[in-house]
Design goal:
- By secondary structure, the protein is mainly alpha-helical.
- The chain has a domain of about 35 residues.
- The chain contains three helices and no strands.
- It is elongated.
Length: about 80
């Protein structure tokens, strides 16, 4: 079910947004809706990636051996 949302934005910004929407053959309303959808999707992907990273760190038992090289050897 769609809900209405009231936004307050600067008049110049709205005028510019209307021009962009016209160039894209869409509406400001559709542009805002698509932006919000994309933002929510990206946020969900980021949360999932962080959760996977935490799980990997929790379950991986990596080991770092002794340092057997010098700084100069690395730069050679």
């Amino acid at each position: 079910m769609a809900k209405n949302l009231t936004l307050t934005i600067d008049e110049d910004l709205l005028r510019a947004a209307r021009k962009v929407a016209l160039d894209r053959n869409t509406s400001v309303n559709q542009m805002v809706r698509e932006y919000l959808e994309a933002t929510v999707r990206e946020s969900g992907r980021q949360r999932a990636a962080v959760a996977k990273l935490h799980e990997l760190l929790r379950t991986t038992h990596g080991r770092v051996g002794p340092i057997t090289w010098t700084r100069d050897q690395l730069h050679e």
